[in-house]
Design a protein that fits this description.
The chain folds into two domains: 86 residues, no CATH class; 120 residues, Cytidine Deaminase, domain 2, CATH 3.40.140. It is 44% helix and 16% strand. It is built from nine helices and five strands, in the order αααααααββαβαββ. The protein has a five-stranded mixed sheet, with helices on both faces. The termini are far apart. The mean pLDDT is 87.
């Protein structure tokens, strides 16, 4: 049965508009993007199959465009919608960080960094550049590496901090294939970046490691 043949109070789109987005399951939310199903399956049933095949929403959103486009029932328009929705969420969180003290809401910072970095198949080193009131000036990906390591150059971090007139920075990188616990190399790098930034009066306020749904804050664990 097509979703359009369901009672109005059971259709995902109508339930979202009348009851709120929180009442919908992952499959129902995804079905709104799919819009239609395939022969023998409604959009919700197709969504359930996709979530099972990719291991959930995180796996689905981490898939590249070619993987998504190869799935039955997902066209390029749907791929574009999913990519746009994820980017809108990331930009909305970034916008919130420009309005207040980032240190006052570490959960918001962690959420932004997870959305930005957790599904990358390779290591990424990023920096949040902050003004004197700890408001976000800009968030930039500075270096990319392999599955297990990234070459980071303190000189480049300092150069960008000076270019955007930052008073402080929050460092961040992901662990695609491991836990969020920092390695010895991570700790050495953090101290090297602290020393380099201190030379130009830029404070390193935190270093956050993202690994799946986990994060590790150097500041929260007394490692700075």
């Amino acid at each position: 049965m097509r979703i359009t043949d369901w009672p109005a109070n059971e259709r995902p789109r109508e339930r979202l508009l009348t009851l709120g987005v929180g009442v919908l399951s992952d499959a129902e939310l995804l079905a709104i993007f799919l819009r239609t199903g395939v022969a023998g399956s409604s959009a919700v049933e197709l969504a359930r199959t996709l979530l099972q095949d990719f291991g959930g929403l995180a796996g689905l959103l981490a898939a590249d465009n070619q993987q998504l486009g190869a799935c039955r029932g997902i066209g390029q328009a749907t791929v574009a919608l999913l990519r746009a929705a994820l980017e809108l969420a990331r930009r909305a969180l970034a916008d919130e960080l420009t309005r207040g003290d980032t240190l006052a809401n570490p959960a918001q910072v962690a959420g932004f960094l997870q959305l930005w970095l957790r599904d990358r198949p390779f290591e990424v080193f990023a920096v949040l550049f902050l003004d004197a009131r700890n408001r976000l000036i800009v968030a930039e990906e500075l270096f990319r590496g392999t599955l297990t390591q990234t070459a980071v150059y303190p000189r480049e971090v300092v150069r960008r901090a000076l270019a955007v007139n930052a008073a402080g920075v929050i460092l961040a990188h992901n662990h695609p294939s491991g836990a969020a616990e920092p390695s010895t190399a991570d700790q050495i790098l953090t101290q090297a970046l602290r020393a380099a930034c201190a030379l130009v009066d830029v404070r390193v306020l935190d270093h956050v490691i993202v690994a799946g749904h986990q994060t590790h804050s150097f500041a929260a664990h007394g490692r700075l």
